[in-house]
Amino acid sequence: MTAATALQAVIWAYEAKFKSPFTPSPLLYDATGITHKRFAKLVRGEKTPTADEITALAEFFGVPITDLV
Fold this sequence. Notes:
- This protein is mainly alpha-helical.
- It has helices at 6-18, 26-32, 36-44, 51-61.
- Helix content is 58%, strand content 0%.
- The model has no long low-confidence stretch (mean pLDDT 95).
């Protein structure tokens, strides 16, 4: 199966690394400053992340920024 978005691919890699499903939590929203509705739209590709959001998500997931572009 192919990821629809770069963020979705990063989430799948995160799940594989920790061998458990990823569930967004208040920790994610607080750390990134992204609301739960916006995060869902970013994952589905309905919205394009801003540069600040990409930076925050890369830091949260521990991946290079280029993985989210």
